[in-house]
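Translate sequence into structure tokens.
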Amino acid sequence: MSEKRIKMISDRLMVLNPKDLDIIDEGHLHIGHEGAKKGAF
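Result follows.
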């Protein structure tokens, strides 16, 4: 996940005023999975 995408997600979630926010990229866990071949976006 690019830094730009992480910032976009973080900015959008911050409107919910979370106490803590961690964005963890687990995309590597889906390599080879049928649904991951084209990506989510």
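Note: The first helix runs from residue 3 to 14.
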